[in-house]
Please model this.
Amino acid sequence: MSDVTPDLMPEQTRDIMIDQRVFDLYDEYCHGRIDRRAFLKQAAVVAGGLAMAQALMPRYANAQTISFTDERIKATYVTYPSPGGNSGTMKGYLVQPAGKGPFPSVLVIHENRGLNPYIEDVARRFAVEGFLVLAPDGLFPVGGYPGNDDDGRELQAKLDQGKLRTDMLNGAKFLKAHALSSGKLAVTGFCWGGGTTNYLAVMLGADLKAAAPYYGAAPTTSAVADIRAPLLVNYAENDDRINSMWPEFESALKAAKVSYEMYKYPGTQHGFHNNSTPRYQEAAAKLSWERMVAHFKKNTA
Model:
């Protein structure tokens, strides 16, 4: 079923001003705290809220900025062992720059709904910048990203979450050891992937050269001392649940003498980097991207 009503076409939805209450409901929906029906029903209480809710649904045709046939890159799907994960095997989207390598590498971790077209495009964007990139699909053990975010979110919630993080850790190890990799690894991720980026910074220690979580949950305070990679932490301004973790996280980073920079982007919502929905904020997305690429290039050179 289409995400838009027949009289509300995608190009029209982009001009709708979204009420913050609907943004907040969408955040609840995205994180699985309410289902789609409840999201639409509660949004409808706000004047014009149903149209706003429909406008927030992802339009992945808008997310592609680098074609999968771009001559500057080569993209393929790969499988690799994942001991201790949800099935013992994982699949990911591997993208390499044109040339022979070796290349510094970046692991890109998806949100809480699997390897969707937005995340694949982020992988291609990094490859254009000269990185070997792997974007794992955490849903591979249950058939892979199902083609829509609702089903993807439901599938991911049913997985063993500890084993799912192990699958991401094994993806990092696979990429770091890849024949085309220089062995210098960076990690980024968004939402669930942002929290998992922080987790990998803890688990990989000195094997990780740089990390850039986007609006991700902070790691356990007692584990922060294990982080060795410099962090570039990206937050949205309107994201109280995630932002409330920062003071304790920052105190732990300072105590452990971990190198970090934190940027909170004014006027943004959770998910501001994702250009497939109206939560996207172009200026913040571009600036954060430029900062992240520079951070990765500096620390993986």
Notes: Residues 10-57 form one domain. Strands lie at 73-82, 88-97, 103-109, 132-137, 181-190, 210-214, 231-238, 260-269. The longest strand covers residues 73-82. Residues 282-300 form the longest helix (19 residues).
